[in-house]
Design a protein that fits this description.
The protein is an alpha/beta fold. It has one domain (3-155): Beta Polymerase, domain 2 (2-Layer Sandwich). The chain has helices spanning 3-15, 38-47, 116-127; strands spanning 19-25, 28-33, 55-63, 77-85, 90-97, 105-107, 130-132, 161-166, 171-176. Strands 1-2-5-4-3 form a five-stranded mixed β-sheet. Strand 6, helix 3 and strand 7 (130-132) form a beta-alpha-beta unit. The longest helix has 13 residues, at 3-15.
Length: 198
């Protein structure tokens, strides 16, 4: 039995019917759980002696609205965590989909792994995912007055306002965008021997 088989068996035994989907691809395991089971599954992954995922090394949001440039059937927003067990020297990916697309909410894992604090703030800032129970859920990368969530696939690619520091007023000011929109057309090379290629 390989280490991956051992981990898969341990995950299945420890999580039981909380596993909605378990995918084995490229020598990696991805476990998907329901939003109602998310916090409990995280605690099991951390505390179960056969698993011992002591560290959450990454957490991010995903917008599946046009996954692989095709319409997506199912919940739009997902939270993906990468967990590491130092004790057992193995990893697993934990996924949970937010039940509502209009107001995406899942439980916060800050009490399970303190390292997710800023990761959850980033997912909130960029995707608008709300982490229920997070004690300081506020923007971390965009300006406090920023409207919208820039990693959502329906976010406009060009804005309407820009900010800059004004030396005369000695403060940051907002003004209408001064950059003219333009279309960039790639240069097409039609030379037969361009770059020494034949």
């Amino acid at each position: 039995m390989s280490r991956l088989d051992t981990l898969e068996a341990a995950l299945t035994a420890a999580l039981g019917d909380r596993v909605k989907k378990l995918v084995r691809d490229r020598r990696e395991l991805t476990v998907t759980v329901g939003a109602a089971d998310y916090l409990g599954a995280a605690l099991t992954l951390r505390d179960h002696t056969d698993l011992k995922f002591e560290q959450n090394i990454d957490l991010c949001g995903v917008d599946y609205s046009i996954y692989k440039d095709q319409p997506w059937e199912g919940p739009r927003f997902c939270v993906v965590s990468h967990l590491l067990s130092v004790s057992h020297n193995w990893r697993v990916r934990l996924k949970v989909f937010c039940p509502e697309d209009d107001v995406p909410v899942v439980a916060s894992l800050t009490e399970v792994w303190s390292a997710v604090n800023w990761f959850e703030r980033e997912a909130f800032d960029l995707y608008g995912i709300i982490f229920d129970g997070h004690l300081d859920l506020r923007r971390i990368l965009t300006d406090y007055g920023f409207i919208g969530h820039p990693f959502r696939k329906d976010f406009p690619t060009s804005g309407h306002v820009e900010m800059r520091y004004d030396a005369e007023q000695k403060r940051v000011i907002y003004q209408p965008v001064t950059i003219e929109p333009r279309e960039i057309t790639p240069r097409i090379i039609r030379e037969d021997n361009y770059g020494g290629l034949h």
